[in-house]
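Um, can you check?
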Amino acid sequence: MHSKLPDVGTTIFAVMSKMAVENNAINLSQGFPDFPLDSKLVNLVSKAMQEGHNQYAPMPGLPALRQVIAQVVQNTYQKSVDADTEVTVTAGGTQALFSILQALVHTGDEVIVFDPAYDSYNPAIRLSGGVPIHINLKAPSFSIDWQEVEAKINARTKIIMVNTPHNPSGAVFTEKDIQELERIALKHNLIVLSDEVYERIIFDNKKHYSVLERPALANNSIAVFSFGKTFHATGWKIGYVVAPAALTKEIRKAHQFIVFSVNTPIQVALAEYMKTPEHYNSLGKFYQQKRDQFLSFIKGSSLQPLSCYGSYFQLLSYEGISKKGDMAMAEELTIQHKIASIPVSVFYQDKSDNKLLRFCFAKQDETMEKAGEILRKI
């Protein structure tokens, strides 16, 4: 059989999580919280089930939830969106990205991707018949060289994918970045696919620059969001897409045949839960405390933290400790020291190895304290 993805194996997240289980290691590799959800939200889901909301939801999402999403977008980004024609509820951010690329990318279309990048981007582009054009961010700040971006654009360039706050680095867009993105997208008539699943998880008084808050850019842009990231419920796999009506129409054509509709009782619960802004506006402060706590627990370690302004991941450099490749180092930490991380080279198409490991700090203090004890000894 001729594989469509001959170079793709099991995702690194599954590999490292399996290794963590096999070696009884603390798992700071896969990005999922180990603390409980708000009981109010859990009770709302249970209530929805008990009230009989257990059959198919409408394909674009429950109208009540889409209305609330539209209001949240208005309140957050001062962007008026039509709940009926510009908001689509998806089975998580990954399915949203896949549906968008399947709907909009034609054979031979080029899609610009910034590495290190979430590992679903490249396969999803290739499965759609597109050609991923990878540009490396400038370590250690993980900034974008916009002149390099413009030099890569040609008649085949269709989409530019961005991710802020950024996974795995924790970097965030500056005002100059969003201005340059807008200039380039409008000049070359590009669609911007903006992965903003960590929109609420941003620190140190930094601002999240969304494509939605700049009217001209928003007309050419698709923004992807995640309830799972926002409400500590990654296993629910539920998110949403905000896009102009013409793009939404095409995205839904693919969405309906990939997943059709999304978990009904959870949509019912979120429609109620999202009406209270306090349920999501305090997330940045919450995770900044988590980041600061993690950094305090590893203080004194020979591993050096890089700046992290968003997401719930912290990069640590082991350059002063070992010359090993990052995959070998991640395996050593998991097997010998009983702590699992993600080697950052897997997020690069060219496998750039900057001697960096990614650790998830969306964990209980007890978990992070145990991890800190291990890391301080390395």
In short: The CA atoms of residues 111 and 354 lie 25 Å apart. The radius of gyration is 20 Å. DSSP finds 15 helices and 13 strands in the chain. The domain at 55-277 is CATH 3.40.640.10 (Aspartate Aminotransferase; domain 2).
